[in-house]
Amino acid sequence: MNRFIRNIIIGATLIIMYSCAQNPEFIKIDNIVVKGIKDSLMEVHMDYVVFNPNNVKTKLKQSGMSLYYKDAYVGEGFLENQISLKPNDTIRVPVLCNIKLDKLSKFYPEMLISDTTAFNIKGENKIGFLFNSFTIDVDEKIYLNTREIIKKEINKNLGNTSNFRIKTVSINSLPTLDKTNFKITILAKNNLDFDYEIHQMELQFFLDDKAKEPIANWSQDKVISQKALSSTEIPLEVVVDNMNTLKNSSVTMLFKKEIDFIVVGQVQIKIQNYVFDVPINDNMKMDIKKFIGL
User: Fold this and answer.
1) How many CB atoms lie within 10 A of CB 201?
2) Taking residues 175-204, what's their average pLDDT?
3) What is the structure's pLDDT at 8?
4) Is 52 exposed, middle or buried (0-12, 13-18, 19+ CB in 10 A)?
5) Does pTM surpass 0.90?
6) pLDDT by residue (tens digit) across 209-241?
7) CATH number, domain 24-156, options 1.10.760.10, 1.10.443.10, 2.60.40.10, 2.40.50.140
8) DSSP H/E element including 156
9) What H or E segment, with its residue span, contains residue 16?
10) From CA 291, how far away is CA 294, in angstroms rounded?
11) ∠178-183-186 over CA atoms, to 5°?
12) Minimal CA–CA distance to 282: which of 159, 116, 162?
């Protein structure tokens, strides 16, 4: 009989607690820190602050949050483990957000304008209480210090020397005793999701990677627009000083079937008000007869 009464009391108590249960309250998102880049993801750590108004602890069982830049989905946030919420207390719940750079990259130019970038974080969190669960909706704006990370990502992409390659080399006119006119095409590749401008390309040409002096120089005289995810052929007219070429060439080179035609230099890429210095270094094998115009 005592056991029966005890079960009734326990059941009644649970019913009362259940009927009096209150939905935990979302307070704010705090302590937002951009940790860095890992596997093409920008990792952001933050505290999800929530108040549990109930007299017993509850569990934050599931969290599903999406991040948006303007209206574009760029990533998600989640809990790594279930978190217990202490009774009548405000709790800071650690949340990890991963922002996908491939989703974000097309917005890099506008994100360079200011130190911080506004993101919207939306979603819901499931909180277990006794035999029931509550849902807390989240729709907040957060601000991340992204400029320096974005600059590093752009530099990393532009720094790939394969972005500027020699495509073709040909003699433009019959060589004379003192000079040879070459027509050279440089293939410039833009692997980014936005347009940019090419400024101040300075190139030097060599026939040997051990040569101390170039056989020719070339400087860009006008701005070149480079479209997103595309290639541009940049035509060059280069005048080679034949006497200087002989002076800087080894005797054995004249007996080779092929020579190394080397371009080394630097180009400035302008994105918004930022200028990125990009190295150029490429090597093309060239028939020696073609080079001397035979």
Assistant:
1) 22
2) 92
3) 45
4) buried
5) no
6) 777 888 899 999 999 999 999 999 999 999 988
7) 2.60.40.10
8) helix 147-158
9) helix 2-20
10) 8
11) 130
12) 162
